Amino acid sequence: MLTLSMVVAGKLTAQAPPPAAKSDELTINLADAITRAAKYGSQVQLAAILVRLAHEDRVQARAATLPSLSALSQFIYTEGNGTPSGVFVANDGVHVYNDQAVVHEDLLALFTRSAIHAATAAEIVAKAKADVATRGLTATVVADYYAIASAQRKLGNAQKALGEAQAFLDITRKQEAGGEAAHADVIKAQLQSQQRQRDVEDAAVSIQKAKIALGVLIFPALDLNYRIVDDLSTPTSLPVLVSGGLPVFNEFRTQATGHSAELHAAAAGLEQSKAELGAARSAYLPSFTLDFYYGIDANQFAVRTNYPTPESGRSTLPNYLVPYRQNLGYSGMATLIFPVWSWGSIRSRVKQAELRQQQAQLDLSSSQKQVAANIESAYQEAQTALNQIESLRSSSELAAESLKLTLLRYQAGEATTLEVVDAQATANGARIAYDDGLVRYRLALADLRILTGQTVGGTP
User: Fold this and answer.
1) What is the pLDDT of residues 390-423, one digit of tens each?
2) In sequence order, what are the residues at sequence separation of 6 or more whose Cβ sits closer than 8 angstroms to the Cβ of residue 176?
């Protein structure tokens, strides 16, 4: 964590107070909004489900390499024809009972673990993408949160501009009544007042639109009965470049690289593609399986027959009777299968895996360059926005002072209506620009913190 900081200094221009909270209105700060979005945001929930799915794939891939145990319970009835086996010579008798435990294992699967590696890498990719979704949602929440703050401040500025316009309209009417101003001045002031009234109405609508955008993310059902905490005027800090700049910026870039969810996802995607290539190539190898059976495969459901029975049970052999026959026992089977001809399907799958590996390598290289570009862009944006705040504050104060002086000059007959209207527009524009500068800095700071893995919405 970097410790060098630059604190926003200077007196903050007075802003219109935020709307009064209703008794049942919920007050939400930025940290609350981010926490709520993580809880109710469908993007994050979907990403979490994908992580769980990838985990189950890994569990299944690992289980596929281990011995399996199954149970078989079967009864076969064959039409009798006077022989021990009945009409179907493939059966051992008219009644056949199969009750066996079966152990199966693919021995080569114990050594070719590429499927497990691929599933493990896929789970890492899913977790990294979940992190990407979380950070993307955080950025969206920050933007929507400060869109509300900006809209509220625009409403305050619009109301203040309306008050200034109405005050000037009152002055022009008094001046006209005293014979010191023309009726054209009153008309110009009245037009200005009407325009400011429309600005107030537009600003009020903008607040509702911004609250809808954020409300969709932070509530289980759309709810507009809430207000946010306007912290734009709260002093905040930003790590800055020291002499020469490079050492500190390189530290920022290192933090961004180490905490980049996009880079983690791309790197895990490359590992996944390598494992998938190994899995595709393993199809060229033979499979060697062992099966062990233990149980009953007899004409009577019993450990041994309790009556004289043919020794072999086959109708094609002499019918030698024995007092009983042992039914409970075991058998084993070993199978070795070599792939001989598959019409090029194995080679095609290997080629696909190689191409996916090349694609994953390109994605990783692109992500590395993009992260470097993003961190530099975010840092320069935050630094520039911070450097301009003092200038914007000063411009706002100067514009307010200019308006005051222009009104005094107008009342003294030394300034025209157009000069007053222009001064009012300049003062209103300077206030809006200052608020926009504060929002710009907050958004840039949030982007920088997201890129470097720092907390957004907490203590600066």
Assistant:
1) 899 999 999 999 999 998 888 888 888 889 899 9
2) 182, 183, 185, 186
